[in-house]
Amino acid sequence: MEIKKVYSVYLSPTGTTEKAVLAVADGICLPSEKIDLTTLKSRQNLSRSFTNDELVIIGMPVYGGRLPFNLGDFFSGLKGNNTPAIALVMYGNREYEDALLELKIRIDERGFKVIAGAAFIGEHTFSQKIATGRPDANDLKIAKEFGEKVIKEIDKALAGKLVVNGVYPFAAKGFNPAQPGHLTKFARIITTEDCTLCGICADNCPWGAISISDTVITDVNKCLRCLRCVKVCPEQARKIIDPEFYVWLKNFEKRLTAVRKEPEMFLMR
Ligand SMILES: Cc1cc2nc3c(=O)[nH]c(=O)nc-3n(C[C@H](O)[C@H](O)[C@H](O)COP(=O)(O)O)c2cc1C
Q: How far does residue 2's CA lie from ligand 1's centre (Å)?
């Protein structure tokens, strides 16, 4: 099988998933196109179809051991025609539980054939102390080599069977902001008086959770705490201020910095 083009398709609120997906594409070394589906706008009226001589890498972050909640628009806008695909999840050095299996299932049911999977580690959304600066140069080298291997073994991969980590029916619950949990209780993102109502947070929110009138309104039932708004705000006016969050975070950091996890890759057997 001769693959003619590779696509990097991803949702990456804080940019770590994007880095790993692009490194895999780099290793594949074919004409390539980036499809960044992070903002809600980029997924509205999305309709992309791929042929069987193209290869699509699809990447997403892990939230609560699953894919981000409520991403119907991401998957329904992508259509494969027996198109080979690589599923990649990015997690913050805790665990990825069922997320990679969930991604594989959701891509396969859209007409793709997932031939390889990977779980990489990225700096944790909530703390620069956890997996600091990852994916780092070593992670990106591994990602690139993984891309090289997949394209080299594409015929074997297409004929085989792929098994990735995860349990179906899914054991991990993910993070549903509309349901009570520790993050919904104390990780509220507020807007300080430095806000100029520029609207950059609303335009960038992947979940359509922010609207602007004479104040910034955050719909807590839609906000996935991805902190993209915090990172893109030019005035640093978006913040979590709950003291309980920072008490929890201290213990969380202690637990998650004890061991450095390494990328895992799965190929057809
Ligand atoms: C709501 C939420 C839940 C998360 N859950 C997990 C998790 O279950 N396991 C983990 O290791 N990291 C978890 N993370 C961390 C992200 O998966 C990690 O930081 C990832 O690199 C973010 O990807 P991005 O930079 O592409 O947005 C979570 C982050 C958020 C915001």
A: 35
